[in-house]
Amino acid sequence: MTAFIALRQASRRDASELAILADIASHGFASWLWCADVANGVSDTPLEQGRLKMSEEEAVGGWRDSVIAEAYGEVAGVAIGHALEDGIGDIVATIPATEPMLALQKTVVGSWFIGSLGVYRHLRGIGIGRRLLEDQIDRADRRPVSLITASDNEAALSLYGRNGFLEAARADDVPLFENSKSHAWVLMTRSAA
């Protein structure tokens, strides 16, 4: 464990930072989703909408489910995780691009699900992602841990593989744009500790 990395529970005041880091973790997928709310007049920018989502009191995957990593006196990264409850089986994807990920999540009900793990680029490679991942495994409280990443995200696949995660399933993505590069969503799981 790297001593200069401190973890803390996020607070509602962290919503802006959480939105940025969730967008980084998703390689822009989060802000693409938030664009729909901009088009509907709910907010002026995707990141503003992300901030609103992250600041909601009872939102799954919001500030209450978030752990912030700090290093060198600044926010460095985030992990957002929660128990995947039976109720997910009742959720219907309203956006085609989310269908494959939702289908994968429905196969691991009962696990601890890491929805986002992101670190600012200038602070990568010093153990922050590993420390956040270890913390999420501890929070799982002896449950299996699951997450989804893109098949072309080699850094993430390597990090998760080194930490005991194995590929459980894949699903082809639904391209966001006509000329989008295609990939698969990879469901990775780690046995209960």
From TrEMBL:
Residues 5-193 form the N-acetyltransferase domain. InterPro entries: Acyl_CoA_acyltransferase, GNAT_dom. It comes from the Bacteria. Gene3D superfamilies: 3.40.630.30. This is GCN5-related N-acetyltransferase.
